[in-house]
Design goal:
The complex is a heterodimer of chains A (about 210) and B (about 280). Chain A is an all-alpha fold. Chain A has seven helices and no strands. In chain A, helix 2 packs antiparallel against helix 3 and helix 6 crosses helix 7. Classes of the chains: A mainly alpha (about 210), B alpha/beta (about 280).
């Protein structure tokens, strides 16, 4: 029963939602909205579990690894400060609120710094790995070169030719490959969903 | 050690240093880089140009601070254009870090142009689970957002009288740095048929060209180049056009790196072949 009940529930919910999608009726829309509300409720219920997990793991790490203690303390302090900053509306709205200041002067520079570091890794990777070792690698290299060349001001008519080639690359080979991937992923998702609804795929219950 | 071996084994710190210098150069010397226009950006500009005299568009700010360098210039240019034309905007944010950025941009631009919350724009705020939020907004904006970001009831805003869902706005433009863009295509466009355009980061852009050809998107703003093109069309230079020289110099450096490393690679391979043939003859 411990394994059968979830499978029965998943089957009923799955089939109900499939039928709902094809029924353009007010009751059907209400059911859909009700189901969506459930997803949000489940997500909210999962939040304390996530917070508990983050805190216990951070504290455990701080105890076990003295060198990591400072980072663990920063995590806990950041967590507590943001809880306080978000606990009252006037503390998280407005240009000079605590939350806004934390956001503008801590989070924004931190995220921007991390993202901009990628430029250095990409430059290094381009230098070390982008070599025409095989025909396919040479094709990839040539394509990347032509696409990136679009960012460099070239004299006419080179600029127009380059733009035309880049447009062709984006709209023909790129689009064909992307479309194949999208259709493949879509078919895979449908297959996987059918397997879950029919109880063939049970890995979501954990174990085997 | 041969010259090609030295070139192939160059310390990565030199690469970092050269790139850093390349990024700093445009900050010291002013450079004007011409920006060629693309049809996908022009399409967005034309549709936004139609938001005049009370017409309403929906602008979704669905990105994090990590991608704001590419996407915020788009948001600013579009908001300025809409307000200049006396159009109106409904905004939301489906990224958890989006609301603070949206509030900052919206408040600043509205303040500069004398626009008022509730009359010229409404910022609905943030809700988790983009797919569910988009689906719920398709029924009525008030379902996921009974109050706006500032806690005021949506029904109390004069601008929202008669505005219930996507049928009541001209189109949706999502500026997305993540999978919210896909959610808008799958749930906003496919389920509710809302005309949709996207503004995405440069690395994401190639993923969305199939949707342009299929007509699911009427336009696309790809990365900082898309922002620069938009600013050029809008005749309002901003961070998009300012960012182009930085992108140009860094791309040029990467291209030079690729050429150099391949010259060294082929020189080494040629030398190895020659050496192998000589060893075979002797």
């Amino acid at each position: 029963m411990k394994r059968q009940l979830p499978i029965i529930l998943v089957f009923i919910c799955g089939i109900t939602m499939v039928i709902q999608f094809f029924v353009p009726h007010e009751y059907s829309e209400d059911l859909f909205q009700y189901a969506n509300d459930f997803v949000i409720v489940i997500g909210i219920l999962a939040l304390p579990v996530g917070i508990y997990s983050l805190m216990t793991q951070t504290v455990r790490k701080a105890r076990r690894e003295p060198k990591e203690r400072l980072y663990s303390l920063a995590t806990i302090a950041g967590f507590l400060v943001m809880i306080i900053a978000g606990s009252r509306r006037e503390w998280f709205t407005g240009a000079t609120s605590l939350s806004s200041n934390m956001f503008n002067y801590v989070l924004v520079p931190a995220q921007a710094t991390l993202f901009s570091m990628l430029a250095f890794y990409i430059a290094s990777a381009a230098y070390r790995a982008f070599r025409a070792r095989t025909l396919l690698a040479a094709l990839l290299l040539l394509t990347a070169f032509v696409v990136m060349l679009r960012m460099i001001p070239l004299p006419e008519p080179l600029s127009t030719w380059n733009n035309d080639v880049v447009r062709w690359i984006l709209e023909v080979p790129n689009m064909a490959a992307k479309r194949a991937i999208i259709i493949g992923v879509g078919l895979g998702a449908v297959t996987y969903s059918i397997k879950i609804v029919l109880g063939i795929e049970r890995s979501y219950m954990g174990g085997d | 050690m041969a010259w090609y071996d030295r070139l192939l084994a160059v310390d990565r710190r030199w690469i970092y240093l050269i790139l850093a210098v390349a990024v700093v150069i445009p900050a010291i010397w002013t450079m004007h880089i011409p920006v060629s226009l693309s049809s996908e950006v022009e399409n967005v500009f034309e549709r936004v140009s139609g938001i005049q005299d009370g017409k309403i568009m929906f602008l979704a700010i669905d990105y994090d601070p990590s991608t704001m360098a590419e996407l915020s210039p788009m948001a600013e240019a579009i908001l300025r254009q809409v307000f200049r034309q006396n159009g109106r905007v409904v905004l939301s944010s489906l990224s958890q870090f989006g609301p603070a950025m949206t509030d900052e941009i919206m408040t600043r631009i509205a303040g500069e142009m004398g626009k008022v919350s509730g009359e010229d724009y409404v910022f609905l705020g943030y809700k988790p689970y983009p797919a569910i939020t988009i689906l719920a907004m398709g029924t009525d904006f008030r379902v996921p957002f009974p109050t706006d970001y500032y806690g005021d009831r949506v029904d109390d805003h004069p601008m929202m009288a008669g505005v219930h869902n996507f049928d009541d706005v001209e189109f949706v433009l999502s500026l997305a740095g993540g999978n919210a863009a896909d959610m808008w295509i799958v749930y906003g466009n496919a389920k509710y048929g809302v005309p949709l355009a996207l503004g995405v980061t440069g690395v994401m852009a190639t993923d969305y060209y199939p949707y342009l050809q299929s007509g699911q998107l009427f336009g696309l703003l790809p990365g900082i180049k898309g922002a620069a093109e938009y600013e050029q069309l809008n005749e309002s230079p901003g961070d998009g056009l300012r960012g182009i020289p930085y992108q140009t110099t860094s791309h040029a450096v990467v291209l030079v790196f690729i050429v150099l490393t391949n010259i060294a690679f082929f020189a080494k391979r040629s030398a190895q072949r020659k050496h192998g043939m000589q060893a075979g003859l002797s």
